[in-house]
Write a structure and sequence with these properties.
The protein has three helices and two strands; from the N terminus they run βααβα. With 105 residues, it is mainly alpha-helical. The mean pLDDT is 90.
Length: 105
Amino acid sequence: MNNNQIKNPKTEVPTGVKLNDKDYMNSLLSCLKEMVKNYAVVLTEASNEDLYNKYEEMFLEYSKLQREVFEVMFRKGWYVLEKAESTKINSKYQTLNQEFTDLNG
């Protein structure tokens, strides 16, 4: 096992031309990610307060659902994360902190 990976034991699925659970979950996750992105754009463009509130409610619901699908896929070992080196994390933090300071300075 690669020490830079964070993963769970992989749940095996049938191979072949037929779709399996992993395929369906991948498709669902992709669709939900796209929907969340689109709702983020819609929120910035909504001019009516009632419409904005409804879109925000839908955005939050789809975001939650997207996270839940990701969590299931991760638990089943179908989604692998890579550990970031502490030096990379610290470097990124410093960069973002400096940008924030520059914006507020």
